[in-house]
């Protein structure tokens, strides 16, 4: 199976790249290991209720990203959420809470945004790419099921550590690739252990939408997720662990770190928070990249046979988080589209 460009990863960066390629007339396919698009822009349904268990809300600085966010229907958006914020100085991106900053939550969950980006794209879900190889002037993505996807350009848009595991065996011997690979190796990835806790609606109503408790030792964020839902059946808190705690407990049994985070929630909010009616947990092994560790732009390499290999994502940007990921994807798509046009590989959008 062949396209001009093969994009691995249907998070915001990969989808933004594929969408911009399509807009510029470059055929592309997006391969995604998971059952849905979005990566950390993730929503799951628990006990019949949507829950955002990665990114809690959407916000923008640039007009370009803001315009993309506002493709979501106005009826779905909750302008200004979170309205009640505590401990914003401890947030990963404190600037998101500044007065006048464009931000909102989504009634049906933040995954509505990547689903909007994916509209009209050729996205193949459940494709686990396990290796890359060169084939003449093409690069090939090999799936665990034996399928092979060929393209003149191959874009890897996974978490930075996952991207490195894919590209390093292929590109380590390429001229000029050593320095680029070393830059990627130097980027530390912050894990985030996450607990979704559901309570009967009659329990205490926490007086915040998001809290970054400075007094906590294990909890980094408590998101009052049910305040984003219309007529919620459950009061839902999403608890995210601090990077140090998450790193130290990443391989521990799920039940143990879940109990620890719930215990600290009980210390902060009252013992009721330690005893949810139901609970689900999730390990974000590659939760985020800190602003100080961003590389500033995507990595672009040329194979000996002339094919192009690119790496994009939130680590390869000047801005952290979803906005950086989106802009990284668009910028790389622009470079690829220009090169494809010179080679006669781009047509009408």
TrEMBL record:
Residues 99-336 form the Amine oxidase domain. It comes from Eiseniibacteriota bacterium. This is FAD-dependent oxidoreductase. Transmembrane segments: none annotated. Pfam families: Amino_oxidase, NAD_binding_8. InterPro entries: Amino_oxidase, FAD/NAD-bd_sf. GO terms for molecular function: oxidoreductase activity.
